[in-house]
Amino acid sequence: MTMARPGGRTARVRAAVVRAVGDALVEHGLAGVDLADVARRAGVGKTTVYRRWGTVAAAVAELVDDMVETSVPRAATGDLESDLRANAELVRSTLADPRQGRLLTALIGAARADERTAAALRRFYDARVREWEPCVAEAVSRGELPAGTDPAEVVRAVSAPLYYRLLTHGELPTEAARDRAVAAALAAARAGVYVV
């Protein structure tokens, strides 16, 4: 159950702190995030930040939860290849974005060191996969993919190669990499690789 977010000053403080946490993560990684610095960056009192979040892990989790809430909804084209390409392009453009790509890389690194961050990041990726699962399920119902195809696995197969190149080689995903990821996931799905 998602709680409604407060409005007014509370919403402004939350937004400023979330942005400041993201900026600090991008610049310094998890080890360099300091709540006093976050308060300064956000233009709010340290007491407010410490009272509301208490720990860096809580503030980072809030950042990730905000990412879940503000993620772009899936495009529904009615064509599996087009839907998967739209998903891959969203991933590619996010990872290639100077701030967002660095932020996600920092969050993935932070998740290795902090279980609360890891749990928040899992919620983010689970929400993103759930958002895109219907395009695969609809393709199964249209007979484009074998019955029993796991929609989540197909969606993950599209984005995994884009993340892999960024995380292992520091290479921003290209449009060619996007297209290869879509073609590979689609071919594997049609061949029944993701049937459970």
Q: What composes the largest sheet?
A: none
> From the alpha-carbon coordinates, what is the Rg to the nearest angstrom?
19 Å
**Uncertain segments:** none
For this structure, the CATH topology of the largest domain is: Tetracycline Repressor, domain 2
Topology, number of strands = 0
What class, by secondary structure content? Answer: mainly alpha
Number of domains: 2
- Fraction of residues in helices? over 70%
Q: Count of helical segments? A: 9
What's the level 1 CATH class of the largest domain?
Mainly Alpha
Q: What is the CATH superfamily of the largest domain?
A: Tetracycline Repressor, domain 2
**What integer is the average pLDDT?**
90
* CATH architecture classification of the largest domain: Orthogonal Bundle
What sort of overall outline do the alpha carbons produce when their principal axes are compared? elongated
H and E string: HHHHHHHHH
Q: Report how far the terminal alpha carbons are from each other.
A: 29 Å
What is the beta-strand fraction?
Answer: under 5%
What does this molecule look like?
- Helix content is 74%, strand content 0%.
- The chain is built from nine helices and no strands.
- The model has no long low-confidence stretch (mean pLDDT 90).
- The protein has two domains: 8-67, Homeodomain-like (Arc Repressor Mutant, subunit A, Orthogonal Bundle), CATH 1.10.10; 73-190, Tetracycline Repressor, domain 2 (Orthogonal Bundle), CATH 1.10.357.
- By secondary structure, the protein is mainly α.
- The protein is elongated.
